[in-house]
Amino acid sequence: MKTYDIVIVGGGPAGLAAAVAAKEAGNDSILILERDHELGGILNQCIHNGFGLHTFKEELTGPEYAYRFIKQVLDLGIEYKLNTMVMDIAPDKTVTAMNREDGMFTIPAKAVILAMGCRERPRGALNIPGYRPAGIFSAGTAQRLVNIEGYMPGREVVILGSGDIGLIMARRMTLEGAKVKVVAELMPYSGGLKRNIVQCLDDYGIPLKLSHTVVDIEGKDHVTAVTIAKVGPDRKPIPGTEIRYTCDTLLLSCGLIPENELSRSAGVKMSPVTSGPVVNESLETNIPGVFACGNVLHVHDLVDYVSEEAKRAGENAVKYINEGCRDSENQDFIEIAATDGARYTVPSSINLDRMSDLLTVRFRVGDVYKDSFVSVYFDDERILHNQKRIMAPGEMEQIILKKSQLKEHEGLKKITVKIEAE
Amino acid sequence: MEKRELTCIGCPMGCQLTVTMENGEVTGVTGNTCMKGDIYARKEVVNPTRIVTSTVKITDGDKERVSVKTASDIPKDKIFDVMKDIDAATAKAPVYIGDVLIENVAGTGVSVIATREIAKV
Ligand SMILES: Cc1cc2nc3c(=O)[nH]c(=O)nc-3n(C[C@H](O)[C@H](O)[C@H](O)COP(=O)(O)OP(=O)(O)OC[C@H]3O[C@@H](n4cnc5c(N)ncnc54)[C@H](O)[C@@H]3O)c2cc1C
Ligand code: SF4
Fold first, then answer.
1. With an 8 Å Cβ cutoff, is B118 touching chain A?
2. By CB atoms within 10 Å of each CB, which of A25, A58, A59, A240 scores lowest?
3. β-pairing, B25-30 with B49-50?
4. Per residue in B32-75, pLDDT tens?
5. Ligand 2 atom 8 nearest Cα
6. ipTM confidence
7. Rounded to an integer, what is the distance from CA A189 to the centroid of its chain?
8. Which residue of A43, A44, A49, A200 to mutate against B (max B Cβ within 10 Å)?
9. Buried b or exposed e, range A377-407, using 16+ CB within 10 angstroms
10. Which of A152, A134, A15, A202 is nearest to B65 (CA)?
């Protein structure tokens, strides 16, 4: 087996953008490993439009957006292997993978970029009582069935969870002739974009019931009815508020989690908040030379940010190969902490020497905040205090740090991002 | 005087807009926090339009279906007519991004174009 400098695990938008950036940064020894039979990742099944407004200044569908990057990968002659599953990444960056033609093979890489994306939260985690009849799908599985295979999972649908994939599927199945009876959301707010609530639910008169959950699923072999109930502030169902809907399909759209089994077995340190790796300013994990980007790092709602982040990971991987490991024993890291409503930040530490002139720090808030402030503290001093009309858990926030500004604060140990009422 | 309630999609605020109309003409918009909401509301009550995306059946291709979209927005009340034409259509591989698969879909004057590549087998 040929050896490569950079092995990229996953050929979705993150892996593709990282590969293009690494090639453009001057490295010619790059291999993308993708377990699916085509490049493009999950975007291939996201046939609706709304992608790429930031990157291409036009509204593309998922497949069109993916193709822009696939085309660059092909034009640049970057190597890739399809139908190839990465089985293991060793701490010394030896990648073990498997496919039909090559069987099991190993590549001792100099740098590895994790770009495995995310998957939907499994139903087991949802704790819905009742039998396990057929007719229950995750919204993403339904999206694949309808959009790729052209197969309709059912005709009368109830959707649990108001994440964007669920909202998009409510419209999609309605367009194909199904009756979507209700979307029930456990939280008092929707995790989906306003635009999707209006254009996927309101347009078709589909009711959205906030603070509701499924309490009963009927049907032994196949779903025949679903009962939902209102929940109190403790998120427990309130007796007497049940509503029963006859249906043949229940779609679950209850959030995404980064797919990190490989990272864990490689010894990559994980964040309990994002379920993704903990990374520094270079998007590098605790293992020097192992980088992460896209949904495997933290769940993104806009693919544009995935591409932008992946570009940085690709460039930094090349830098790492050219310059070697740049961490010395007694090096000072500046920690970035998220508190008071800010749930996490990516990255979560900065090495000032390696930091670029401008660094984008992304984070999410844990609740809906109106007319609140995003504050940034350098140790105890507040250096940024920006009012935002609205912040919501479903939308990623960002701040931009200037290297010059960090340098002015000599001996800076900790940067804190928090949400303040005033 | 007629009143219409809308949710602005311009940003996550999701302002609840009230549009007042007289003889089909907008006389006022309230509830918006910024101008974007005003512009959105006027367009949405007078001439709401949408892009429609779906898939079309393929013959002789390396995939069963090709994803498609309307090349520009179509009137909102034509969505289901457009879907009827899309569901009735088939296309022959190969297909390239941007290929016109249906012309003047449902009499809207807009074409339906492919959004991915399908190779011939
Ligand atoms: C079901 C689903 C539906 C979505 N729908 C939308 C939507 O409608 N709109 C939207 O804006 N965003 C949507 N998203 C978010 C969307 O995934 C991101 O915007 C973007 O695709 C993330 O890019 P990525 O490259 O990080 O991940 P992905 O696109 O998920 O790509 C990861 C790739 O890694 C591969 N891979 C994983 N593990 C291995 C392994 N061990 N070996 C080899 N290859 C591997 C996968 O096969 C996949 O191709 C959706 C996500 C999911 C999970
Ligand atoms: S009116 Fe302005 S502030 Fe309100 S939702 Fe629309 S764009 Fe946002």
1. no
2. A240
3. unpaired
4. 989 999 999 999 999 999 999 999 999 999 999 999 999 999 99
5. B11
6. 0.91
7. 20
8. A49
9. bbeeeeebeeeeebbbbbbbbebebebeebe
10. A152
